[in-house]
Amino acid sequence: MIDSVNVIVDEAAIEHNTKLLRQTLKPETKIISVIKANGYGCGLTQVAHTCEKLGIDMLAVLDVDQAVDLRNDGITLPIILLGATLESNFQYLIDFDLTQAVINMEYAHKLDAFAKANNTKIKGHIKVDTGLNRLGLKTYEEVRSCYDLEGLDITGIYSHFVEAQSYDGDATEFSKNQIRRFNEVLEKLHDEGIDTKMTHMQNSPSIIHFGDLGYSAVRCGMVMFGLYHPSQLNESLHDGYKPVLSMEARICMVKEIKKGEFVGYGRTFTATQDMKLATVTAGYCDGVMKSLSLNGGGVMVNGHHCPITGDIAMSQFMIDVTGIDCEVEDKVMIFGHEDQTIYDYIQITGQSINELISLIRYTVPRIYVNPIK
Ligand SMILES: Cc1ncc(COP(=O)(O)O)c(C=O)c1O
Asked: Which residues are substrate-binding (predicted)?
């Protein structure tokens, strides 16, 4: 069956990007692949299997339901939950052998009590808040006291950058301060003879910005999937990371309209001449945002850029194909093509890269090309 809309995932590109990432890192540095947001749009379980094949050391997701899906699909890699698992779901941490982020003291005590009540230990990585003010423990004393909780098996400790993608002097100083604060905590723990086990702080932008900072692992998503913050685009291209994702739909109807006719809901487009239109089988319910049409964007058909005419609707939109040779069922490249990269696309929609990949509907069928062994 031909799908009306697809996301194409190039597995060989993930492999290529992972090899490049490894070359950037010290040989002993482990890789935790962050595959939240449906595996950065590539499909959660499929990408997890790809990571296993690529020898990735650990997976990171946000929610316990994603982790349970992975285990039910046969994934045996260690999995860390970067988000807060609700207390009502703590049993899953034990049953599915998951590692939980320890996000504050109250939470640490809840995990500890639950584990003890079940005569077991729950694996945890302590999250140190060095500036994001999202999750994490703030003081050394709090961090230190987690190691005394008998219900917790602390197998790692980590922090998270706020804006490592920025090369602005003030932002870089902020990132360096975060590094200093995290290192101070680690040093104090070492001074007290505590084995911190897995230490990790670096996401993709920080690896591109600072190189390998020497923690035992990196925790990254974007670079594996060939994605960058626009501020790092030139550096990344220079590094040779390859795009992984593209999105395409189909033409389902081609027709001629007369000068003066309106197109789409709200009559936002009026034909200034007789023209040929094509109707496309995707819309905002798939993740093709209205802002693409509102900001004058287009798509690629048979190598030609075709402006969107009128507003994007829930599952369809119209494009101007005047003078272009095309027919029903032809592919419509929404992004991913070299003539309309994901970066060209977000420049028009005003989204961030992560917003874009998160908003592609989960149920849009993913097609995996160039499979790896
Ligand atoms: C806590 C945490 N660690 C790591 C990452 C991975 O970041 P990136 O995709 O930039 O490598 C994320 C993603 O937002 C995150 O929230």
From this structure: 134, 314
User: Ligand 1 pocket, 61 CB below 6 A?
Assistant: no
User: CA-CA distance, 132 to 187, in Å (whole number)?
Assistant: 21
Residue ranges per structural domain of the chain: 11-227, 245-369
Q: How far is the CA of 219 from the centre of ligand 1 (A)?
A: 7
Q: What is the CATH number of domain 245-369?
A: 2.40.37.10
Closest-lying ligand 1 atom to the alpha carbon of residue 229: 10
pLDDT tens-place string over residues 194-243: 999 999 999 999 999 999 999 999 999 999 999 988 888 777 655 688 89
What is the tens place of the pLDDT at every residue in 241-278? 889 999 999 999 999 999 999 999 999 999 999 999 99
CA distance 8 to 344: 18
Judged on CB neighbours under 10 Å (0-12, 13-18, 19+), 89 is middle
Structure tokens at 240: 């040779």
For range 332-348, the mean pLDDT:
92
Topology classification of domain 11-227: TIM Barrel (3.20.20)
CA separation, residue 337 to residues 7, 162, 232, 243, 366 (Å): 12, 31, 20, 9, 16
Q: 218 C-alpha vs ligand 1 centroid, how far in Å?
A: 10
| Ligand 1 close to Cβ of residue 101 (< 6 A) | no
